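Notebook p. 47: complex prediction with cytidine-5'-monophosphate.
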Amino acid sequence: MTSVIPPRDRLIVGLDVPTIEDARNIVQTLGPTVSFYKIGMQQVFAGGLELARELIDQNKQVFLDMKLLDIPNTVSKAIENIAQLGVTFTTVHAYDHVMMAAVEARGSSGLQILGVTVLTNMDDSDLARMGIGMTAGELVLTRAKTALSLKMDGVIASAHEAAAIHAVVGSKLKIVTPGIRLAGGDVQDQKRVMTPALAISAGSDYLVVARPVIQADDPQRAAAMIIEEIEAAAFN
Ligand code: C5P
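Predicted complex, structure tokens below:
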């Protein structure tokens, strides 16, 4: 899909910090270098929706990572309210009824819904224990195909899953990928990391990066390096 998205807009910086003041400071430090931010549950319970509105007022895009999972009626009402915030992306778990309700409720609002296929802390044995007779890889692909058939806008996937998903859904679903590390960087608690260039080459459309940017000695330089790498890989 990808080369039509400007490289700068393909980096989503995760504002994974305890307070909204901390998040505001990061946004100020990154200035015009970064155009897209992720606000997750930690921030939502600490004033994150107000921050989302502020960012939108500053012409930034916002990924509100809510990972909704509930009965269709409740999901639908939640999505209608999220759509009014003006955020670009939000997430739901990629279960048929949840995705169906979310897509219907977002209507033509411009809000894009991403499906969380399988949480990355779960492996094949976790799924077996839950009575699911598929490997995590198979379930990711099955849910990505369902997401496409239900007219979802995209999925969250590791860079390792991106190529397989991309091969099946082509450019019809956006692939949004966390677990990115610059070559030689500290992997922290991420187990299966990839560099920005490899993730883009594997078919990821957007990269979600938190610690390698927000904990860098020079966050603006770290973000700029990632965007340069995205640009080089996208036009290769
Ligand atoms: O600091 P780091 O770059 O590892 O953060 C990645 C961001 O993406 C965090 O906000 C994390 O919660 C999120 N994420 C992830 N792995 C997933 C899904 C989301 O790291 N499978």
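Notes: Residues 14, 16, 38, 40, 120, 156, 178-179, 190, 208-212 surround cytidine-5'-monophosphate (CB under 6 Å). Strands lie at 11-14, 36-39, 61-68, 89-93, 112-116, 154-156, 174-177, 206-209.
Next step: compare against the earlier run before touching the bench.
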